[in-house]
C-alpha cells in the first residue's frame, strides 16, 4: 500500500461549517470522478497498528485537471478529535492519502442521471458534474437534488440550472419537500439514481425509489461491492 504524504496548499471556507482542503498532487497520481480516499493525519501510522481515530474515508471533490486533491468536509463547533486537529491545521502542513478508489463514476449510458445528496455529500458529485459539463455525450440530462437544513448550500457556482447543458440543480431545506421531489424524479423509470449521504439517508432514499418502481441496478451508491448488497437487498 502506497501512502502519499502531501501538503495543504489552500483552505477554502465554503460555508460557516464546511471547508475544502486543497492538497498538492503527488507526481503521477491520478483519479476519476466519484473517487474517495483514506485521508489521515500525522501520527496515524506511528505505532504498531494504525490509529484509526486519525483516519477518515473522504470523497475527493476535485478532478485532476484542477491540479489539486480537494477534500471537502463539515467541521462543527463540537466535533471529533480528528476534526478538531484538522480544523487547526495550517497551509503547508502535511496529511496522508492512500487507497483511492471510485465506486460511482459517471455512467454514460444514454440515460438521465439524477444526483441525490444530503449536505456535504454534494462534494462527491462535484466531479461528476464537472465531468458532465466538460463532455455531455451519452448522458441525456443531469439533475441534482440536495437537502441541507442549514440552508448554507454548497457549490452553488457549479450547481445551478444550466438549460443549454440540460443540467438542473435543486436545493431544499426539509425532508418533506426533498422526498416529494425524489418521488417526482422517480417518474423516470429508466433513469440512473446516484445517492450520497449518511447510511440512514441511503436506506430511506432506496426505500422511496424502490416503492416508485426503480430497480436496484438503477441505484448507484458510494459503497464497496460487499456493502451494496446489504443496502439494496433489504429493499428488493
TrEMBL record:
The record ties this protein, via InterPro entries, to: FNR_nucleotide-bd (IPR039261), Riboflavin_synthase-like_b-brl (IPR017938)
Q: Mind telling me what this protein is named?
A: Dihydropteridine reductase
Amino acid at each position: 500500500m502506497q501512502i502519499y504524504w502531501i501538503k495543504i496548499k489552500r483552505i477554502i471556507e465554503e460555508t460557516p461549517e464546511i471547508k475544502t482542503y486543497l492538497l498538492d498532487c503527488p507526481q503521477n497520481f491520478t483519479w476519476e470522478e466519484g473517487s474517495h480516499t483514506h485521508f489521515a493525519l500525522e501520527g496515524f501510522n506511528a505505532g504498531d497498528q494504525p490509529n484509526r481515530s486519525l483516519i477518515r474515508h473522504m470523497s475527493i471533490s476535485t478532478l485532476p485537471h484542477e491540479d489539486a486533491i480537494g477534500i471537502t468536509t463539515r467541521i462543527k463547533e463540537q466535533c471529533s478529535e480528528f476534526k478538531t486537529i484538522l480544523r487547526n491545521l495550517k497551509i503547508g502542513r502535511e496529511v496522508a492519502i492512500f487507497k483511492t478508489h471510485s465506486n460511482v463514476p459517471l455512467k454514460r449510458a444514454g440515460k438521465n442521471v439524477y444526483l441525490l445528496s444530503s449536505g456535504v455529500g454534494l462534494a462527491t458529485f462535484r466531479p461528476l458534474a464537472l465531468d458532465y459539463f466538460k463532455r455531455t455525450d451519452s448522458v441525456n440530462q443531469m439533475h441534482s437534488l440536495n437537502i441541507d437544513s442549514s440552508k448554507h448550500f454548497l457549490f452553488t457556482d457549479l450547481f445551478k440550472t444550466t438549460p443549454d447543458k440540460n443540467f438542473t440543480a435543486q436545493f431544499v431545506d426539509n425532508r418533506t419537500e426533498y422526498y416529494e421531489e425524489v418521488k417526482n424524479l422517480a417518474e423516470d423509470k429508466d433513469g440512473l439514481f446516484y445517492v450520497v449521504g449518511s447510511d440512514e439517508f441511503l436506506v430511506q432514499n432506496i426505500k422511496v425509489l424502490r416503492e416508485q418502481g426503480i430497480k436496484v441496478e438503477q441505484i448507484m451508491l458510494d459503497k464497496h461491492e460487499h456493502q451494496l448488497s446489504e443496502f439494496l437487498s433489504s429493499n428488493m
